[in-house]
Design goal:
110 residues, 7 helices, mainly alpha, Four Helix Bundle (Hemerythrin (Met), subunit A)
Length: 110
């Protein structure tokens, strides 16, 4: 989790995005649900621009760090409901930030 903050502090967007992608892939792999793993690998491989759009929104990287920390903590505590809620909240906030930034077509077309 420190990698996110380090990349944020260094303003290294590419490394931050790569750490974000890895975080999501690790969670997908941890589900041991092959469909989720394939879906996440496909999204991260083919939607890099979407990741960049989200994390270029002012304040979004800092929010991402906080949201990832909540997700990680929920996983570590073993709370499925809390983890699901934290992940759902994270995804909804990212979509909302994209909408607010005017990327509505990127969300509905993708």
């Amino acid at each position: 989790m420190a990698t996110f903050q380090e990349n944020l502090d260094e303003n290294n967007l590419v490394a931050f995005i790569m750490a974000d992608i890895q975080f999501h892939r690790l969670i997908a792999n941890a589900t041991r649900n092959r469909t989720i793993e394939i879906l996440m690998n496909t999204i991260t491989r083919h939607d890099f621009d979407g990741w960049k759009m989200t994390l270029r929104i002012k304040g979004r990287p800092l929010k991402t760090v906080a949201e990832h920390n909540r997700i990680f903590k929920a996983i570590a505590e073993g709370g499925e409901i809390k983890t699901r809620s934290a992940m759902k909240s994270h995804l909804k906030r990212a979509v909302k930030n994209l909408q607010e930034a005017g990327f509505e077509s990127a969300i509905s077309d993708g």
